[in-house]
Write a structure and sequence with these properties.
2 copies of one chain form a homodimer. By secondary structure, chain A is α+β, with helices and mostly antiparallel strands. In chain A, 33% of the residues lie in helices and 18% in strands. Chains A and B meet through strand 14, strand 15 and strand 20 of A and strand 14, strand 15 and strand 20 of B.
Chain lengths: 632, 632
């Protein structure tokens, strides 16, 4: 390792990006202390990454590389996009190794990198499926072939190894492949765009990492050429499945496959960050508005429909048959993070936080070796996390997100430091000589203490995010209240000539509260959800000896939060008074003439809610987020 | 045509079936007069069947046969089960031609039959896909190859041509194929069962038509061998996708692909009708109980989930993202009809009627050339019927069902005649010298007049179905009230020495009523549906100038029905007072802290409901069956 890479950027680097209002911190600019995310990171490092390596062996991903290199014989195994699983796993390993050396993990990574290097073709091409199975079909099926998608994930893994570990092996492979792709596609070459976006943001990052403008140009080319209405959708779908109905600059509807749509948005935002093109920004704002007005579940989950794994119509947000793919939640985080960097506006951080603590974090099991692909808001009991999937996009995507979660805590700009997520951590802007210690039990407690450890005596601004869910936030500096605006959904800013030893105390009150959903949503009628801080709750059958589907909550009663250190790795639970309906009077009927005014008999029960993100860790069992309101 | 076939059975023949309590009438035993179904039959005959022929040409179904016969060159077109579309279309043509000769249609049928005859292999094998594309893979993939499924549909078409028209050409082809299959599969031969059930009921009918016991034995073999847990499901599914998790005699859960499940149930019921095996009957009753306790939509639709086109958990009945495939509604009709024949119990006729007037009849457009594959109960506007589908199971299934709808009107038994569905018709049991004229405007009006036209003077019983939805039915004979039991969901029976000229007047009161759904269903909370007689209603955007999703109905107000002869081919509409919520106070929020007691402002509006089965005939537009209740 060289010293140079030690202050290299994290998974996204906007340190020299012209149209970023906020600059990402170097990878070593955030060091997590013991807390909510670092506990998950430990499991990720100690269980998930090893498990992933075993699964990549077992599912045939490595076997496919060995077929190319001649180290194995037989048939190609699995779907044609298997390579990307390896790349996302490697990206996760890079960030894990940077945080904490691990000799065994390094050997695994070296094995994988060796296979990848050996599988690259003399002309730079790299894809095991199209090398082994259909060598004549290279780039023949951009809509469904996933070659550019896999390439994008290789680039991101390569950037991770270079930035986090100063290891250029994958980067050399990546640039050879990128140069090969640039020799095939471009304004005077072959036209086209990838059926599954991903390479766009990877190419922009490759430009940031290498300084080679042609990678940015190629990203722009793929984005510009999309939207000709030519791509063949899956199932009932037309070009909207691939976000190919209209060009991005005229698009206004989030539609089609949710992961594809959100990866594309992240790539377009990356392009905007570099070019500052207003038409792109305007499109992004239209599309973000569309998504956040009835196309996100209260978990932050995206993709209402199983059909095409796609966005639904506005306010089409089913509880049980929603898709809410873990990868879509991750993609939403990636997009909103880029919009936050572009604008500095808290609304993007709010959407990001909603997904991170809920619809993303429900993906991995506490054991680190089981994963949800789909994240429903209601289960009648038959649904459980699996060790792996035949389409295994989610597990390694979870791993790379957890391994790099620290990136989202803080940024800098010319005026100072911004804190976006709160966690026990050291945050350092070494270029400016600023170091802060954050002490908090967030998201379980709303008290956040910021200790100024180093500063150069100049005046600068500390920006503290006040989440949209938080009313009556207060701030003290060195014990004294400060009268700065601390509105929900904004950044409170304190500008002063900070001194080492200064202490800022932010208090984000976290009463348990009930949420209601917009009346245009059909599935949440007369129901409420429980939230505390950024954490959404659910009822799980494991905590109840009656049918959850017959339960109601008393919306007027008070809700109690209590810490249970031995439950599910330590969680805050919520208890609430409710009722159990006696549906016996219905007999065997499913539909009957309306009997107005006849209420079913009910008995008082106690409801016990656990965070949504830990549901399903006590075996497959029923769960519901939205709880019918009693006695309206 | 011989005289013999003129009194041959309809699509199902239980005239000599030992364990049938009710006997089906000969094909000419029911002649429909002008009315609800015959209007649809006319469109079916005049538009749909011609359209179907064009589509079979356009989609490549006939082309695939020509590839086998050498009349065409090129690639096989479409999915591997394309042949069945031709067979179901032919079955429909046979019943249409029997009711009303049509020279042009006969030429089309002859062309198709000629192709099929020429495509049959010397050994009797017949399947264009596995003859043209994968000749080495005959019977290699029973789970997904659909060869036995296609064969079953050929058998049914062949039986239809033989019974309805005395035309044995297809029957000769069918028996050669059946004999070939029997030479491959059986107790001392190859083990296995078809991934998609269908051949079971077809083989039982082939036995009934030919008297050849080996076809019944083969049906029993396929049913007996199912349930080994070996079939590979689609997507996330295991063997339950194919109803292969457990043997039928121990099954108790309706699960997996809904059409597969229901076709299997129909076949098992056919087997029971012939063998009287109690274990089969017990299984059928368990499974029927399971299905009717929370796995059927109020439309009679079956298959709650897009995923696997499958049954959901009990009470999992989404409105917008349900599947409710048209073929599943048809399959439910087929199964319930067989259970009715086996038992004579009205509950099976009720389920059949619910599906026929609602979830089945929503399939075809009024123009006869567009069809729903999926039948949701809520659409936000983007969903429309298509001319055809790449998986085109539904359109010809609709055609054969409409062409043979008369079969469901009446049956006989040793004691008399039973009327199940009411329609303008002549019903004749020529073997017993009984003829009845039915006069009614059902389902729009509840008055049914039965005129005894012919009878032999002996005493017999007339059984009149009193639908489960009907309270206070009354019966008069020759003008005088009769005091027989006429409970909802039963058969009223009148036994006497009927004389020609006797008149029975059945009055089935049809007030408009509101239905509520079981509290365990999450998606219908505090909502009601409108029903009148057997006809379910919906709100359609075309009739309203405000957002249907913001509408509520006043459950205490009176509902008015009115005939609109110029609307949608003539329908009874229902008007109801309701409210339109002003959701402006929500601003851009989708979720917010509960504001108990704060009701949204609303204005009075008039709601206008149309029958669910005609929705979507005025362009793609929003629709909802379940309407939130105001002011609970």
């Amino acid at each position: 390792m060289s010293d140079e890479h030690m202050s290299a950027a994290g998974p996204l680097d906007t340190t020299r990006t012209p149209h970023a209002r906020l600059r990402t911190l170097p990878l070593d600019g955030v060091t997590l202390g013991r807390g909510f995310w670092s506990l998950r990171q430990a499991t990720n490092r100690e269980a998930s990454l090893q498990h992933g390596y075993r699964m990549l062996e077992q599912a045939g991903n490595f076997h496919n590389f060995r077929l190319v290199t001649g180290q194995a014989q037989g048939d190609y195994r699995g779907r044609l996009f298997m390579d990307e699983n390896v790349y996302k796993w490697l990206e996760a390993v890079a960030y894990a190794l940077a945080a904490s050396p691990d000799a065994a993990l390094r050997v695994m990574a070296d094995n994988a990198i060796g296979l990848i290097a050996a599988a690259q073709q003399p002309d730079g091409y790299l894809n095991t499926y199209f090398t082994v199975v259909e060598p004549q079909q290279r780039w023949a099926d951009l809509d469904h072939g996933h070659e550019l998608y896999c390439a994008g994930h290789l680039f991101q893994a390569a950037i991770a190894f270079h930035r986090a570990l100063g290891d250029a092996r994958l980067l050399n492979i990546a640039t050879r492949l990128a140069d090969h792709i640039a020799s095939v596609f471009g304004p005077d070459k072959r036209d086209g765009a990838p059926g599954h976006p991903e390479i766009e943001m990877a190419l922009v990052e490759l430009y940031r990492e290498t300084g080679e403008r042609r990678y940015l140009d190629l990203a722009k080319f793929f984005i510009d050429r999309r939207g000709q209405g030519k791509m063949r959708g899956l199932g009932w779908y037309g070009p909207e499945y691939h976000q190919d109905r209209v060009p991005i600059r005229t698009a206004s509807i989030m539609e089609g496959h949710a992961v594809r749509a959100l990866y594309l948005m992240a790539g377009v935002t990356d392009l905007y960050l570099e070019t500052g093109e207003q038409a792109l920004f305007d499109a992004l704002m239209r599309l973000w508005h569309d998504m956040t007005h009835g196309k996100l579940h209260v978990t932050g989950g995206a993709g209402a429909r199983y059909e095409g794994e796609s966005f639904g119509d506005p306010y089409e947000l089913p509880n049980d048959q929603c898709y809410c793919e873990t990868c879509a939640a991750i993609a939403s985080v990636m997009w909103n993070w880029r919009l936050l960097l572009a604008t500095g506006e808290a609304r993007f951080a709010d959407v990001m936080e909603q997904a991170l603590y809920n619809g993303f974090l429900s993906g991995p099991a506490l054991d680190g070796t089981h994963f949800f692909y789909i994240n429903p808001l209601l289960s009648r009991g038959g649904y459980a996390r699996a060790e792996w999937y035949s389409v295994a996009c989610c597990p390694p995507n979870i791993m790379r997100t957890l391994a790099s979660i620290g990136q989202y805590l803080a940024t800098t700009d010319a005026g100072g430091v911004q804190l976006h997520l709160y966690h026990q951590a050291r945050v350092a802007d070494s270029a400016r000589g600023i170091a802060l210690d954050i002490e908090t039990q967030y998201p379980w407690q709303g008290a956040v203490k910021v200790l100024v450890k180093e500063t150069d005596g100049a005046s600068w601004t500390l920006s503290l995010r006040i989440p949209a869910w938080c009313r009556d936030a207060t701030i003290r500096v060195n014990g004294a209240p400060v009268s700065v605006s601390a509105e929900a959904g904004s950044y409170a800013t304190i500008t002063r000539a900070w001194q080492a030893g200064d202490i800022v105390e932010l208090e984000l009150p976290m009463p348990v509260r009930l949420l209601e959903a917009h009346p245009l949503i059909d599935t949440t009628r007369d129901a409420v959800a429980i939230q505390r801080g950024p954490v959404l709750y659910c009822l799980e059958q494991a905590d109840h000896d009656f049918d959850l589907m017959a339960a109601q909550i008393d919306p007027s009663a008070s809700l109690q939060a209590a810490w249970e250190g031995d439950l599910l790795g330590g969680v805050m639970i919520v208890t609430a008074p409710g009722y159990l309906l006696d549906t016996g009077a219905w007999g065997g009927q499913v539909y009957r003439p309306l009997e107005s005014g006849k209420e079913l008999p009910r008995q008082s029960v106690s409801l016990r809610a656990v965070p949504y993100h830990v549901w399903g860790n006590r075996g497959a069992n029923a769960m519901r987020v939205w709880i019918p309101r009693a006695g309206r």
